Amino acid sequence: VELAQDDSWRMESVLSRYENQITIFADHLEEFPDTDELVWILGKPHLLKTEKSKLLSDISARLWFTYRRKFSPIGGTGPSSDAGWGCMLRCGQMMLAQALICRHLGRDWNWEKQKEQPKEYQRILQCFLDRKDCCYSIHQMAQMGVGEGKSIGEWFGPNTVAQVLKKLALFDEWNSLAVYVSMDNTVVIEDIKKMCCVLPLSADTVGESPPDTLNASNQSKGTPAGRPAWKPLLLIVPLRLGINQINPVYVDAFKECFKMPQSLGALGGKPNNAYYFIGFLGDELIFLDPHTTQTFVDTEENGTVDDQTFHCLQSPQRMNILNLDPSVALGFFCKEEKDFDSWCSLVQKEILKENLRMFELVQKHPSHWPPFVPPAKPEVTTTGAEFIDSTEQLEEFDLEEDFEILSV
């Protein structure tokens, strides 16, 4: 017992020292340069010279998820901290959280320290707390990763975290997202429309629905009876933009994605070192870094969450785009069908004009592919996030193919 307590104390000491080092480092990050260039953050431009405070406010409003410690052991006997292995899972959480903010609060919503926030904001935050009963917690993501061939505590790649989010979203009735992860660098319009266009429920059925449950009929207010409603779309495009390093021919197209109003940024970074990229300035990418270890935060007695540690108030970090590992995943959110149609037009105009295209956008489902079947929630004995209490329940999920390397 004494040895175990001593080991526990040593681990806490190491984590505490690591946390302090990161905080000190963050205080001395290089400030933005004095330039006339525009800074693009998730589809919004900021003129650095005259809108710096507005820019920093926009960045700090993004939910920032980092390593945590002292949460309940994953799976009951697993790790109680994700320090050292959970950075890509945290980046996936950040991308998804941005989609939920756009879905419920809008892209222009802003956060202010110690200011009362809408109830939807608190509910979004609670989806990501480090507890096994929260639908997008580190517990749920790590255990769902077992179905993707990843042991608990093993590092994820961008494609793996995308597949995990797609499967967890099937159990999230409140947010009711359609999550589409492209295959073979190809986005199929027909498949997305099939997944997102859902028939409204009858008035009788709507009356029986719980007040907090979002169904097809109340997602598009004013939708005529019988006309399909649009299920909000989280679109993730995993790519490999080179062999060992990013191919410079993709740089302009990659930056163009951050200008799109539908942008959720990108997942990527360096080998075993993940970042959430939210914009760019010149040839530098701007990112939120999950590599800070903070203590687990739970819901308070009044049902709210102390959100001070979920927003990065330091100047964000930057890296040259050519230092980016070629394995990335782009994210986009289309709340309504017109948003998706607009995104398709932008892709055709800005991405498909290149000789070496970053990805393809096609109208029809490729004939040599297996038939597209919209994902559905598996038949399990419980509902919501609680279904993943053991790895045995992951057997219903098939492993997805990894993304292919683009030819150069």
Automatic annotation (TrEMBL):
Signal peptide: none annotated. Keywords: Autophagy, Cytoplasm, Hydrolase, Lipid metabolism, Protease, Protein transport, Thiol protease, Transport, Ubl conjugation pathway. Residues 53-345 form the Peptidase C54 catalytic domain. It is found in: Cytoplasm. GO terms for biological process: aggrephagy; autophagosome assembly; lipid metabolic process; mitophagy; piecemeal microautophagy of the nucleus; protein processing; protein transport. The keyword Protein transport applies. GO terms for cellular component: cytoplasm. SUPFAM superfamilies: Cysteine proteinases. Its EC number is 3.4.22.-. It is an enzyme of class 3 (hydrolase). It catalyses: [protein]-C-terminal L-amino acid-glycyl-phosphatidylethanolamide + H2O = [protein]-C-terminal L-amino acid-glycine + a 1,2-diacyl-sn-glycero-3-phosphoethanolamine. GO terms for molecular function: cysteine-type endopeptidase activity; protein-phosphatidylethanolamide deconjugating activity. Pfam families: ATG4_LIR, Peptidase_C54. Belongs to the peptidase C54 family. Cysteine protease that plays a key role in autophagy by mediating both proteolytic activation and delipidation of ATG8 family proteins. This is Cysteine protease.
